[in-house]
Amino acid sequence: MAKSMRSKREKRLRAIRREIVEPYYEKKDEAKLAAQEAALAAPKLQVPVPPKTDMEVSTFTINNNSMALLI
């Protein structure tokens, strides 16, 4: 008999905890969605493309020449 009452009490406590915690997660989800919407509505930033250096260009041509020799 005591075990049955204890089980019912634990079940009731779990339900109460769930009711307490649920609004917290709902607010958290709402804040997350608002942040995502704000990020999507913000203007896009342009990413500057770094100019190629002479070193990169010469490495590229050397690699292409060696590939041509292999073919």
Output the keywords.
single chain, 71 residues, mainly alpha
Task: Produce the secondary structure layout.
Layout lengths: L1 H40 L12 H17 L1
Summarize the structure.
The protein has 71 residues and is mainly α. The protein has two helices and no strands. 80% of the residues lie in helices and 0% in strands.
Verbal overview:
- This protein is mainly alpha-helical and 71 residues long.
- The protein has one domain.
- It is 80% helix and 0% strand.
- It is built from 2 helices and no strands.
- The radius of gyration is 31 Å and the shape is rod-shaped.
- It starts with a helix and ends with a helix.
C-alpha end-to-end distance: 86 Å
Overall outline: rod-shaped
Radius of gyration, in angstroms, nearest whole number: 31 Å
* Count of helix runs: 2
**Which band does the percent of strand residues land in?**
under 5%
H/E topology pattern:
HH
Largest sheet: none
- Average pLDDT confidence is 80
Low-confidence segments: none
Overall number of domains: 1
* DSSP strand count: 0
Quaternary structure state of the chains depicted: single chain
